[in-house]
Every structure is written in structure tokens, then in C-alpha cells.
Amino acid sequence: MPQIAPDSLLSLEAYARERNSYRSRVIAHKKLRTVHAGEHVTLIFEDEQTIRYQVQEMLRIERIFEAEGIRGELEAYNPLIPDGSNWKATMLIEYPEPEERRQRLAELKGIEDRVWVQVESTEGKFERVFAIADEDMERENDEKTSAVHFVRFELDEKMRVALKRGNGLSVGIDHPNYRASVQIAPEVRASLASDLA
């Protein structure tokens, strides 16, 4: 599985010098890895570059420079890097008004398990691949789901080959209280396909 090694990270001083240009590059990169599934759900497909940025930001914010602290951050974030057979994404459920957000999160319990990706094949479409959600910890309780989830999509070899050939891709959500489907733009699909072995 791809990992970020501690010695590949910038020191706090070096990161402070490079942060503005580094941040601009990551923001541009994330645009090619962001999918809006309807009006209120965003999926940010993570990769080594997006996770490296998160780690550098956490080290900066928390002022972590000791080896043990750095190792701890990497243990938390490295599992979010795709390993060649899957995609891993941060799922954000976005309602700006607090009262509406509270109500919607109660209505959307289980939504994280109803997110899917679907690859086109020469004969039509492969079966939908539903997300495996929140493997690190449970983010839903009896009252509501969380506004943030971490999801993984496992793709079989035929799907991966089709994507690398440029076959189409759609992403959607099939939940009783939230349905959405979007055809992925070629440049986003190409960025996501580059994660696959």
C-alpha cells in the first residue's frame, strides 16, 4: 500500500516557506478529484498528494515536529491513500443552516452506505460498486449520520482496465431521502483512473 514516509515530509520551517505555492497546487489538483453528487453531497477523492497536504497542514497547525508525533499523524492519514485497486474519498454532507443540517442528517442516516460508482463497459455498464464507509470509526448514531464520512470503493480488474482505457464513469447516491447521479467529466475520470494499478 502506498505510504508517506516521515523523511519525505517538509520540516515546519520549509513548509512555512512553501505553503502558499504548495496550497495553490493542491487546490488545483483537488478540482480534478472533486465530485458533487447532487446539491448537498461532495466527494473528494484522496490520493498521495491530497493526504500529504493534510498531514503537512496538521503538523503545522499542531506544531508537531517530534518523530513520535509525526508517526502518529502518518498512522492516521496513510490509510486514506488508495492502494491501486480502490478509491478512497472524503464525503461531505453540506447544509449551511444549522437547523436544516440537523434535520437533514437525521433523515439521511445510512447515506454513506448508499454512495456508488459505476464504470461503463463495452456491453453497457458494470454493476454499481457501493461504498464501504467509515472503517476507522462509526460516524453515525441513533439520531443522525455525520456530516463527514470516509468511504472506499473497491474496483475489480475489469473495471480498472476499462477506466484506464477511458471508459465512462458515473457516481451517485441511492438513499430513500437523497438520490443523485452524475456523469464524471473526462478530466476528473482521468485523474481518478491514474490511482489504479
Description:
With 197 residues, the chain is of the alpha+beta class. It is 37% helix and 26% strand. The protein has six helices and ten strands; from the N terminus they run αββααβαβββββαββα. The strands form two sheets. It has a five-stranded antiparallel β-sheet with strand order 1-2-3-8-7. Strands 4, 5, 6, 9 and 10 form a five-stranded antiparallel β-sheet that branches. α1 crosses α2.
Key structural traits:
globular, alpha+beta, 5-stranded antiparallel beta sheet, 197 residues
Topology (SSEs and partners):
Blueprint: H1 12-31, E1 34-37, E2 41-46, H2 48-62, H3 67-77, E3 86-93, H4 98-107, E4 115-121, E5 124-125, E6 129-130, E7 132-133, E8 148-154, H5 157-164, E9 169-175, E10 178-183, H6 186-193
Antiparallel strand pairs: 1-2, 2-3, 3-8, 4-5, 4-6, 4-9, 7-8, 9-10
Give the biggest beta sheet: 5 strands, antiparallel
Distance between the termini: 11 Å
Average pLDDT, rounded to a whole number, is: 92
Shape: globular
The helicity comes to 25-40%
Order of helices and strands: HEEHHEHEEEEEHEEH
> Given the structure, what is the number of helices?
6
Number of strands: 10
Which percent range describes the beta-strand content? 25-35%
Oligomer description: single chain
Secondary-structure-based class equals alpha+beta
Strand order across the biggest sheet?
A: 1-2-3-8-7
**Gyration radius from CA atoms, angstroms:** 18 Å
Model regions low in confidence, pLDDT < 50 over at least 5 residues: none
What is this entry, summarized?
The chain has 197 residues and is of the alpha+beta class. Helix content is 37%, strand content 26%. The strands form two sheets. It has a five-stranded antiparallel beta sheet.
